[in-house]
Amino acid sequence: MKKLFLGLAAAAGTLTFAQETKTVTQEPIKKETQPIRFGIKAGGNSAQFSQQSFGLNSQKLGFHAGAFVNIPISKQFSFQPEVLYNQMGARDVAYSTEQTVGATTIKTKGQDKVTMNYISVPLMVQMRPMEKFYVEAGPEFSYFINGKNKGEATVASTTGGITTTQTQSHSEDLNKDNINRFNFGLGLGLGYDITSNIGINARYVNSLTKIDKSVPAAENNNRVFQLGVNYKF
Q1: What distance in Å separates the CA atoms of residue 172 and residue 17, rounded to the nearest whole number?
Q2: Taking the model in full, what pTM does it have?
């Protein structure tokens, strides 16, 4: 009888040890890729035309805003299509002169500002060398909605320390028939995730499609630098 009890006790001990070992060794499988996430983004634009020299006088300030979806491909790579309302264009000082006749100094200045509104669809591939930092690159397809050209001519006359100023302004809509509706460009940028939901992003987009189709010889393209914030749900 004692041998029977000892045998049962040994068998029970073996089963208990095996069950504990199995419980310890079974761990949940960790996923290497993150889930698909949707988000919104917005920020400022600084745009100019490719024929212009880079400088403060050529930069047209605007904005972009829209939504995106981030689709992880692997632990380091993801694909992010976006839909944005996107302002491009340029600012240009057409002429600036100063002339002194006797005791009078006359300064003239003419400045134009072109605003071009697009719906843009960037298709960015993002690579993360670090957990919170990423670089991105990809094509951007845009459709021209409308635009406006505003200008201002100023004449300032100074005599004996007294200045009188005369200003004339003009504003007209861009002729859509002269603008290429579809615009193709290439984007390159980087970003940083401040938290799991909030991030910042900088991107440069160089268009490869000429703006004015009415002038065959012109190869004037959009260039825009974007700086913004994004929020992932």
Answers
A1: 85
A2: 0.79
Q: Residues 95, 220, 116, CA angle at the centre, nearest 5°?
A: 80
- The amino acid at residue 211 is I
What pLDDT, in 10s, does the model give residues 154-176? 888 888 788 888 888 989 999 99
First to last CA, the chain: 68
Instruction: List, for the chain, all residue ranges whose pLDDT scores fall below the cut of 70.
Output: 1-33, 93-94, 216-219
Residues 190/135, Cβ–Cβ less than 8 Å: yes
User: What is the distance between the alpha carbons of residues 41 and 66, in angstroms, rounded to a whole number?
Assistant: 6
Ramachandran assignment for 160, one of left (phi > 0), alpha (psi -120 to 50 degrees), beta (any other): left
| CA dist., res. 82 & res. 95, Å (int) | 39
Q: Could you give the CA distance from residue 147 to residue 172 in angstroms, rounded to a whole number? A: 9
Positive or negative torsion for Cα 43, 85, 175, 223: positive
Q: Does an H or E element contain 17, and which?
A: helix 2-25
Contacts of 150 (CB under 8 A, 6+ apart): 112, 113, 115, 169, 170, 171
- In order of their start, the domains of the chain are 37-93+118-147+180-232 (2.40.160)
Structure tokens at 128: 């993360």
Write the burial class of residue 12 (CB in 10 Å: 0-12 exposed, 13-18 middle, 19+ buried): exposed
C-alpha Rg value of the chain to the nearest Å: 31
